[in-house]
Design brief:
This protein is mostly helical and about 240 residues long. The protein has eight helices and two strands, in the order H-H-H-H-H-E-E-H-H-H. The N and C termini lie far apart (about 60 Å).
Length: about 240
Amino acid sequence: MSFIWNEVIYRPLFNLLIFFYNTISFGDLGLAIIFVTILIKIVLYPLNHKMHKHQGAMKRLQVDIKKIQEEHKGDKARQSEAMLALYRENKVNPFSSFIILIIQLPILIAIYKVMSSGLNGASLDLTYSFITKPELLNEVSFGLINLQDPNILIVCLAAVLQFLQGYFSLGSVKGDDPQSKIQRQTIFILPVLMLFLFWKLPSGIVLYIATSSLISIIEQFLRDGSLKGKEKSVLTTNK
């Protein structure tokens, strides 16, 4: 199992980081981390897109779900049966978001390991033969930030981007039901948790998280623009 982990997930990601460090990053490890993050987001885009489609479908079904819950309040078996029928009819898998997150988890763990243990140069022996092995990784990025050390400014940036990501994705959620309230509260809770949990982490890891959040915000804007364009074209056609 450890062989599969090292050779299929961890080592390719580490070598990808070294490749970007040697080439388009011009020896800047921070830029290399950003390029790795962009590539990972591109590779995972189909999964993320599917997850967002599922979340949109689940939001559209909330009214029907509430009706079923009210109609079969005292009968959990009938309630579950009606819910499953609703999911089948609309081709929605209520567990798909969870499955997609599980698929991404090994990649996230590998990224954490690459950023924490791979930045100190001790792992350079894992470099593939066809990739130039640097004598030493320069851990200072942009001439200012040592990526091995914690950096409160990077943590604050990551927290702000996390808040914006949550705000743009869930800011339109309305209603006084418990689920809507939890979603709105999460927008504020997650950034605060990041400040407490990440302020001692190497800033290279936090830079990956901040970049990932920024790309997610851009994806959200592109998705919203695409959906508005489709709605507009439908309205124009109906006229």
